[in-house]
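Deliverable D4.2, example record:
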Amino acid sequence: MLVLLWVTSYAPFLVGCALTHIVYRVTVDWWLLRRRGITVLAVYKDSDYVGDVLVKRYSFTDAAGEERTFSGGGRLVATDPERIEVTYDPCAPKRRATRDGPVVRTLSVLAYVLLGLPVTAVTAAYPPVSLIVLLSAL
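Output generated by the structure prediction step:
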């Protein structure tokens, strides 16, 4: 019975661990981009289909003078040529994100607070709670 209880509760724990890892990565990226990120204007370069989705590519020059590309979308800053703001980390140039509008930022914070933090808390509480349950069942 104890083994069955442990096996059935372990799968949700692994899902919680995966969600906690996603929350951790998003938090680290947000924190590092806020602390040491540089925001530049990226100019529309071209578009390409990935499956059925149209993905736009923008190019920008980083602080070292190297041309980089950003795939995705963002809030338009200007048109003709189409430009968006991209924030990148000079210590890890592959860490980059667009500057979103207030609605997207609000929805992101709500998802983080209402979903991410509770899942992380439940996942962190799982090992001691399950140990107490197992020991009390013995």
